[in-house]
Amino acid sequence: MNYKLINNNRINFKLNKKYLQMENKVKKNIEYYLNQVYLEDIMGLLKKLPSNSVDMIYGDPDYNVGIKYGNKTYTKNFDEYIEWYIKLAAESLRVLKDTGNMFLINYPKQNAHVRVKFLDKACHEVYDYVWVYNTNVGHTPKRFTTAHRSILHCIKTKNNKFYKDNVALPYKNPTDKRIIQNMANGSKGRMPYDWFYYDLVKNVSKEKTFHACQIPQKLSEMLLKSCTMPEDIVLILFGGSGSEIEICKTLNRKFISSEIDEKYYNMILDRLNNGKIDEKYRLNINNREIQRGTSTILRQPDLLK
Ligand SMILES: C[S@@+](CC[C@H](N)C(=O)[O-])C[C@H]1O[C@@H](n2cnc3c(N)ncnc32)[C@H](O)[C@@H]1O
C-alpha cells in the first residue's frame, strides 16, 4: 500500500513536472498573453513577457503627484519614483521589438528625469511631444498654470515602423503648388506636429467613468494608429479605466494589459465584454459601493468575443 502510494506519487511527480515544463514553454510565447488583462503589478507581468515581442508600448502611469485612485495613492519619494520609472522603462524596452515604438505619458519633470538618467542612453532616439489642454484647475498666483503633459516617444533602432497615412491631417495650404503636387503624388496630408491639442475627459463626457485620471480616447487613438496596423501587438502598461484597451479592440490591435486595482480591473473586463460602460461605473457621487471597490472577482473572459 505504502509502496503503491510512493509509486503513484512518483508518477504524479513526473506528470506534474512534464506539465509544468510544457506550461513554462507556452508562457515563453507572447501568444499566451494576447488579448488578456491581468490583475497584477505591471512589473510582475513585464518580467514574464518574452523579449522583442510587442509592436507598441503605451504607458500612462501614476504621476506621483498625490492622485487618489479610489482610496489608494501610489505616491512615494521623488527619487524612489524615478528609480521605479527607470526600471519600468528598462523592462519595457526589453519587451519592445526593435521595430517598435514606446510612448510614456507623464508630467514634464518626471519625464525629464527618466529621459536624462536612462532613456537617452538606452534608446536609439527619444522624442519629446506635448499634449496641451484647457484646464480649470491648478491655477496658482505665482506661476503659469500647468496645462500640458509630456509624451516621450522612444525607439530602439532607426527601423521603427511609423504610418503617416494613418494619422495625416489636411494640409494648411492646399492651394500651394508643391502641396498640390504632393497630393497628386498620393500624399494623404501632412504629418501632425509634435504638440497635440485634445480636451481633457470631461465629467459629462461619454467616455468618462469613475476612474480618477483618464486620457482622452482621441489622443490614444492617434498614438496607436501612428505606429501600428491591425493585428499588431500593443502593451498597455496601466489598464486604468480600460479606455486605451477599448481603442485597441475597436482598431483590431492585439492587446496585453495589467491593472493593479481590482475595481478598475472589473470595470475593464465589463467594458470590453459588453462593448459599453455600464451605468454603475459612471462618475456618480452616490455610487459609493463602486468608489469603495467591490470584492466580486469577475471571470477572465475571451475579451475579443
Ligand atoms: C494614470 S492611470 C491610467 C489611466 C488610463 N490611461 C485611462 O485613460 O484610463 C494609472 C493606473 O495604473 C494603476 N496602477 C498603479 N500602479 C500600478 C502598477 N504597479 N501596476 C499596474 N497598475 C498600476 C492605477 O490603479 C491606475 O488605474
CATH level 1 class label: Alpha Beta
Q: What is the fold named in CATH at topology level? A: Rossmann fold
Query: Strand order across the biggest sheet?
Result: 1-8-7-2-3-5-4-6
Oligomer: single chain
Largest sheet: 8 strands, mixed
Q: Architecture in CATH? A: 3-Layer(aba) Sandwich
Give the terminus-to-terminus CA distance.
Answer: 50 Å
Work out the count of structural domains.
Answer: 1
Name the helix and strand elements from N-terminus to C-terminus, one letter apiece. HEHEHEHEEHHEHEHEHH
Tell how many strands the DSSP assignment holds: 8
What would you call the shape?
globular
How much strand? 15-25%
> CATH superfamily, called what?
Vaccinia Virus protein VP39
Which value, in Å, is the CA radius of gyration? 22 Å
Mean residue pLDDT: 90
Residue runs with pLDDT of under 50 for 5 or more positions: 1-6, 288-305
Structural account:
With 305 residues, the protein is of the alpha/beta class. The chain has a single domain, classed as Rossmann fold (3-Layer(aba) Sandwich), CATH 3.40.50.150. Helix content is 38%, strand content 16%. The protein has an 8-stranded mixed β-sheet with strand order 1-8-7-2-3-5-4-6, sandwiched between helices. Helix 2 packs parallel to helix 3 (78-95), helix 3 (78-95) crosses helix 4 and helix 7 crosses helix 8 (243-250). The structure holds S-adenosylmethionine.
Features:
binds S-adenosylmethionine, 10 helices, disordered N terminus, alpha/beta, disordered C terminus, eight-stranded mixed β-sheet, 305 residues, Rossmann fold, 38% helix
